Q: What sequence folds into this?
């Protein structure tokens, strides 16, 4: 076996890229998540880094479907916007180019009337 010849990966094809949230994006999302946990609304989360989309899923309980998913889709950057918030039923609640603006739809859940 010749040790000087490098072995190509996947027949010389590039390894597929994954879409992921950047640290600054995660700071914004986790700040909202922490406030919602403190309010007793959310309890768990999951992050998925896929080929076309990065997803931050929010759960009320661990073993159920997510209440909301926050998605980052780079292919939609020049169209409807990079970020979206999707409800439990699959309906897109808000879409846009700025993450903080898109997350405002979830922050409204924190505002409650004081009795």
A:
């Amino acid at each position: 076996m010749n040790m000087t010849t490098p072995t190509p990966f996947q027949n010389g094809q590039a390894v597929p890229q994954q879409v992921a949230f950047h640290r600054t994006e995660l700071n914004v999302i986790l700040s909202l998540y922490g406030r919602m946990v403190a309010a007793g609304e959310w309890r768990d989360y999951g992050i998925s880094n896929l080929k076309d989309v990065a997803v931050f899923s929010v759960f009320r309980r661990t073993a159920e479907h997510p209440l909301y998913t926050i998605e980052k889709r780079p292919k939609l950057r020049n169209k409807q916007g990079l970020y979206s918030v999707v409800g439990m039923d699959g309906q897109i609640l808000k879409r846009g180019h700025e993450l903080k603006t898109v997350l405002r739809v979830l922050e409204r859940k924190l505002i409650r009337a004081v009795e």
